[in-house]
Specification:
432 residues, six-stranded mixed β-sheet, six-stranded parallel β-sheet, 17% strand
Length: 432
């Protein structure tokens, strides 16, 4: 029987267990990860392409002649792709473009007083770096989720980095997705080295205005360390799911969702809060069956037994309260009336309404973005959107008549802050 690490009731959680449940950032804040990432960033910053090639040999066991992948390789990968998979990727790309085009930021202006206009204009970034993870699996979906919103926002140049395989290239599905998404340049580099290359630039890799995309704890830590040099979306780490379920949700459906998230990574976090008569034993039975039959059963088992939790809640309000404190990457409301519960949800990367709204659909096909904050950072960050690919230019105008009316109050402010030059600049207009 698969036994998640934490079981019991919400009200009986000890302070120690509650801290363990809520503090999921230990990996990215550990000295080992932080120091290793800092060393890699220094190497790439100071050594450029030579260090990227050395890191590929050390960490990926592959000898690269150069880090950039010839663009024609992407077209070849797409041509060779299985028709069913190509159809799925192209459908996903259309939906992502439709959803993100509908949420494009717009210019706004307001006039707080007669003669004053204040506005903001969204300007697309010049160059963006998209990271697509590799290693245990390839993620063409992450290519689409990063590159297509950037294109929708009007970014001039979109770059992609993904780790090389034994053949020295990113996965063929990743290359095909790059072709579908219209990526300009692809680089066979991974991990913290890729993030450093995007942040500082090398002989081959242009310096970017923002780095986006998910990754492991090393990638998340690297993004944090370069955040003072270039923009980042959020320091997303291992995948996580919190489910609130009542007795209308079937154990098999719930187990399927839990295994789907746990198979990402041994560090993935899966928590389910059972409300009402929802059966824990039948859920455990289904969870065990699905884990044992999974092709990634070892990863699923380690994830659930290390980071999993099954807790009982007295009512939906108690469950939502813990969910808001937990601030999950994915929140599945597998309850009878999920839309009634939605207004109470405040902290989640993405909310999935009802058992049929599987997280897998959001990962691949609905058009919503699956690049989401993890580790409780949904309290502060949002999922990737077109807003991540623009910067805002603020502008304002003041007519001479309005300047005259502002001058006295501005001078009072400036003199109080001992800035007489500011006061003088304002009072020039006092007799206008």
């Amino acid at each position: 029987m698969i036994a998640p690490a934490i079981r019991g009731t919400i009200r009986d959680l000890t302070p120690e267990v509650r801290r363990r449940l809520l503090n999921r950032n230990a990996g990215t804040s550990s000295n080992v990860v932080r120091d290793a990432v800092a060393a890699i960033i220094r190497r790439v910053r100071d050594g450029g392409d030579a260090q990227l090639l050395a890191l590929a040999a050390e960490l990926d066991s592959v000898q690269l002649a150069k880090v950039e992948v010839p663009r024609e390789f992407c077209a070849r990968a797409l041509s060779a792709m299985r028709p069913d998979l190509r159809k799925a990727l192209e459908r996903s790309a259309r939906n992502i473009l439709a959803v993100h085009s509908a949420s494009l930021p717009v210019v706004w202006e307001t006039s707080p007083e007669p003669g004053i206009i204040v506005g903001r204009r969204p300007d697309p970034l010049g160059v963006v770096g998209v990271y697509a993870p590799g290693g245990r699996a390839s993620y063409p979906s992450s290519v689409l989720m990063g590159a297509i919103p950037a294109r929708a926002a009007g970014v001039k140049r979109v770059l992609l980095a993904s780790p090389p395989g034994a053949d020295g290239l990113p996965a063929q599905a990743v290359l095909a997705a790059a072709e579908i998404a219209g990526v300009d340049s692809v680089f066979a580099i991974g991990g913290a080295g890729a993030i450093a290359a995007f942040a500082y630039g090398t002989e081959s890799v242009p310096r970017v205005d923002r780095v986006v995309g998910p990754g492991n704890s090393y990638v998340a830590e690297a993004k944090l360390q370069v955040a003072s040099v270039t923009g980042i979306d959020s320091p997303a780490g291992p995948s996580e799911l919190l489910i609130i379920a009542d007795d209308t949700a079937t154990p098999d459906t719930l187990a399927a969702e839990m295994v789907a998230q746990a198979e990402h990574d041994p560090d993935a976090v899966v928590v389910i809060l059972l409300v009402g008569r929802a059966g824990e034993e039948s859920l455990l039975e289904q969870l065990t069956l699905r884990t044992n039959s999974s092709q990634r059963s070892e990863i699923v088992r380690e994830s659930l037994q290390t980071n999993g939790a099954i807790l009982r809640a007295d009512n939906l309000a108690e469950a939502v309260e813990l969910a808001n404190e937990f601030a999950p990457e994915h929140l599945l409301l597998a309850v009878e009336n999920p839309c009634e519960l939605l207004p109470a949800v405040r902290n989640a990367g993405a909310v999935f309404l009802g058992s049929s709204s599987s997280v897998a659909f959001g990962d691949y096909m609905t058009g919503a973005n699956h690049v989401l904050p993890t580790g409780g950072l949904a309290r502060s960050y949002s999922g990737l959107s077109t807003l991540d690919f623009v910067r805002w230019t603020s502008y304002q105008s003041v007519t001479p008549h309005a300047a005259q009316k502002l001058s006295a109050d501005v001078a009072a402010f400036a003199n109080a802050e001992r800035l007489p030059g500011h006061a003088a600049a304002a009072t020039v207009w006092s007799a206008a």
